[in-house]
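input
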Amino acid sequence: MTIRHDEASALASFYQDVDGVDLAPLWTITEQLLTPYPRPAAVPWLWSARTYRPLAARAIELVPVERGGERRVLSLRNPGLGGRPYAAGTLWGAIQCLGPRESAPAHRHTPGAIRFVLSGGGVFTTIDGDPCDMHAGDLVLTPGWNWHDHTNTGDSDMLWFDGLDLPMIEALDGVFFEPHPEFTQPAAGEHNRSEQRYAGDPRRHTDGAVSTALDPVSSPLLVYRWADTDARLCRASAAAPDAPSVTVEYTNPESGASVLPTLACGVERILAGRGTLPVRRTGNRIHVVRDGTGHSVIDGIRFDWEPGDAFVVPSWSAVEHHADDQSDLFTLADTPVLRALGIHREQRLDTPQPVTGVFAPRSTARKDHQ
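output
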């Protein structure tokens, strides 16, 4: 269509006037807003344990835990998010480190959080007065607006993976934060009270993934032991000996829903020498390697991993996993929210992806500190 000079001038003036009163013409931006499939800003990425562990040790040495700092945390910053300290558009992921005989002060916030323990011992997290002991492989919940603090009674450092729905709650303009009146909560009395209440309850896990139950209330069980999760994975593997992998989701034992209203946690066990076919899902996922070595292919890029590594799979990215030896991948996902809104989708592909490149993790630590 040919536009006369006077029409072009009038149109330019119109757009200038529209912009001047903070309006936007939809017809110029429809393709940016209504995309044929999700186009997250976050990109597939991996954070190597070989890189972050020395930095965590330096943080313990150089950065005291005290009021004002609250937590000694190295957040997973996705390069696609313009410098924001988020692993994906809806998920916060981080490595928290606590030195010997240290305590991280009590506070509470509306974003919900989970802790997946990477290494160390002698630490407990007190959640609304219930001290929950933490061991490698355990999952500990701190539901939104629950008081929580961390105490290391041992002589060694402890590292765990922090997962929060903070970006999601921030997007909803629902973030509240409050420090506790005391540095830490009183932790007298018996530890692990919620665990004792549900000890041996098979409803703590679901084979595969939760597909129907939804619950606006967080799980009353606050700590899930690795030994129990491993046993459930072993039973699932025995029941499906030819499957390349089996998955178990941690669940609310009262409702069968995911552990938090906004966050799902699970473990996928990939059998030695086997690999899964690609799958696309709406929503974001962070994987943390508990055991084993192998690689994942995300949108054609190969990501090699080993214990402690964390990597992110953005919404609708095709992902497949391959294990050199038996490998366990802890998974944090925002699936409950997408399911509640009716926008959760999955697409399973029939053949492996062609590998078009190999991811190289960054390593910027100076040699004299390695």
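quick obs: Residues 275 and 322 are 4 Å apart (CA to CA).
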